[in-house]
Specification:
Length: 392
């Protein structure tokens, strides 16, 4: 009966005129950027109005319970992998069922998938598991997920970035990471839609390629937003805003930012982002190469980190309105708190685009009154807007 249930749940995404349910696996070797990739992919589709479910990494879930793989015998390790396999199926089933009942378009992001287990198990144990539970490769690999995106480990082509990870779960050397990466690719070989994204570009371009790939598969045309050469532009908006009826379809989110105490020169901050009382929590870390990495965190982590809030900065609260205009994705930030001279009635419009100058002004929403471009004005950076004392 278990096999029949899993077979029913493993059907491809429900794509109709009404809604889409799409299952994507983000996999890859150690230190590939999977966590950051999932966070950005999730935020991107949420801003489109999609419901997004993120199936957590099952191995991390179990290891956080005190399991120590280094202390296991070979037999115990194989037993652990079998149980990991079963827990993973149960967890995915929970999210897949929720997605099928969702009224809106729904993206299910899996932090690794069933076939990843094959990279960590001996062939004999793997095939014995399939035989024991009457599972088969086609159902587990080909029919269960719509798309597989393999992010190549930073140990292969971006070795300088491999040591920036803070996870205590990663113990692999560079060569071990490369080997696991190769084995993971082989485990998914044969899936009808697998894409391998290497480290031939910088990390942010790597993420853009991933998002663009998913958008292409579900039929979302966002050529400008996902162009490799796009850049962030920012404009000052004159209040008051027009009525909601003037806007194209939009999604509003409440966002709360707090800066944290920092010993180094790179500031970090936490954010909670919510809609209709449902919140997600992120930690933003600035790396030495000027890349800001976004980490999805739990509510418990958020509360704990908030105790380290840097009191030199205000807590900033704003409403973010996300919408499309002329195939450009815009984010309109309406600041609510603190109600001081710097933030009172402040409204900023942001977008990522390849357009610039007069060409970009011609793409701006005509229903908003533009007070000028402030892209390169440091006084409109969040770190300066939040600072209680004026920076010189």
């Amino acid at each position: 009966m278990q096999s029949n249930i899993e077979g029913q749940l493993s059907n491809f995404a429900n794509i109709s005129n009404d809604r889409i349910v799409y299952r994507v696996v983000i996999t890859g070797g150690p230190g590939a950027g999977k966590s950051a990739a999932q966070a950005q992919l999730s935020a991107f589709f949420e801003n489109l109005g999609w419901q997004v479910y993120r199936v957590p990494k099952t191995a991390s879930f179990l290891l956080h319970g005190g399991i120590r793989i280094s202390e296991m015998s070979a037999i115990d390790f194989d037993t652990f992998q079998i149980n990991l396999f079963k827990v993973m199926i149960a967890m995915e089933r929970t999210y897949f069922t929720l997605a099928e009942s969702c009224k809106n378009n729904c993206l299910v992001i899996c932090d690794r998938g069933i076939m990843d287990n094959m990279a960590y198990m001996s062939k004999d144990v793997w095939w014995n598991v399939l035989k024991r539970y009457n599972w088969n490769m086609v159902e587990l690999r080909d029919n269960r997920y719509n798309q597989i995106i393999h992010l190549v480990t930073s140990a292969d082509g971006a070795e300088h970035a491999y040591n920036f990870t803070n996870t205590t779960e990663r113990t692999e050397t560079l060569e071990e990471a490369r080997e696991l990466d190769r084995r993971t690719i082989q485990a998914w070989l044969g899936h009808p839609d697998i894409e391998i994204i290497d480290n031939s570009t910088d990390f942010q371009t790597k993420i853009q390629k991933m998002i663009k790939s998913v958008c292409r598969r579900v039929g979302i045309v966002l050529h400008d937003r996902l162009n490799d050469q796009y850049k962030k532009v920012k404009f000052l908006i004159k209040p008051p805003l027009p009525s909601d009826s003037v806007f194209p379809p939009f999604q509003d989110f409440e966002i709360v930012h707090d800066y944290l105490l920092c010993n180094g020169q790179f500031p970090s901050k936490i954010r909670k982002r919510g809609q209709n009382g449902n919140w997600s929590y992120q930690y933003f870390q600035r790396l030495p190469n000027s890349i800001e990495v976004r980490h999805q965190i739990t509510y418990k982590d958020y509360i704990s980190m908030k105790m380290q809030r840097d009191k030199r900065y205000y807590t900033t609260i704003k409403t973010r309105r996300c919408f499309f205009w002329k195939n450009i994705y815009f984010q309109l930030d309406i600041y609510k708190s603190p109600n001081n001279l710097k933030l009172k009635d402040l409204i900023l419009l942001e977008a990522y685009s390849t357009h610039c100058g007069n060409e970009m002004f011609g793409k701006l929403p005509p229903f908003l009154e533009i007070n000028g471009e402030v892209t390169n004005d440091n006084s409109f950076k969040l770190s300066n807007l939040s600072l209680k004392s004026i920076k010189n």
